[in-house]
């Protein structure tokens, strides 16, 4: 799977179950009408249950300039959630999920379905809000290395 080049995103949530953010490379568009996205989350972390419990998530598309943040939210450096979120500026659109202000694009989603497949929980959300930053490069992960496009 390391040969499968993928865009790098931060998926975030906040609500009654608590705030959570994770770097992911397994996300994609499901439908344009209504706009729907999916994200795959490893079930090895019980903290990822917060996405389902909160009923919302934001998919923040990262630029090459966000590599340090991507590494932190992937667990490098062992920072706790507060320290990770303190590394950049955040806002909200509609659901209350954290939107990264410096993201290339951010999709605010209402969770509509989840499904467990092998080691991952697939969360599917309908896009209810969008925020974007114009003119940035994309962050890609391939062969266990970070690249820009």
Summarize this structure briefly.
This is Flavin reductase family protein. It is built from three helices and twelve strands; from the N terminus they run E-E-E-E-E-H-E-H-H-E-E-E-E-E-E.
Describe the fold and architecture.
There is one protein chain. The chain has helices at residues 49-54, 67-73, 81-85, and strands at residues 6-7, 9-13, 20-24, 27-32, 35-42, 56-61, 90-91, 99-100, 105-117, 120-132, 139-142, 145-148. With 149 residues, the chain is mainly β. The protein has one domain (6-148): Pnp Oxidase, Chain A. The model has no long low-confidence stretch (mean pLDDT 92).
Total count of helical runs of at least 4 residues: 3
Strand order of the largest sheet: 3-2-6-9-10-5-4
Structural class: mainly beta
How many structural domains does the protein architecture include? Answer: 1
How much of the polypeptide forms β-strand, as a percent range? Answer: over 45%
| CATH class category label | Mainly Beta
Oligomer: single chain
Strand and helix order: EEEEEHEHHEEEEEE
Topology-level CATH name: Pnp Oxidase, Chain A
User: What sort of overall outline do the alpha carbons produce when their principal axes are compared?
Assistant: globular
- State the end-to-end distance: 20 Å
Largest sheet: 7 strands, antiparallel
How is the secondary structure organized here?
Blueprint: E1 6-7, E2 9-13, E3 20-24, E4 27-32, E5 35-42, H1 49-54, E6 56-61, H2 67-73, H3 81-85, E7 90-91, E8 99-100, E9 105-117, E10 120-132, E11 139-142, E12 145-148
Antiparallel strand pairs: 1-11, 2-3, 2-6, 4-5, 5-10, 6-9, 7-8, 9-10, 11-12
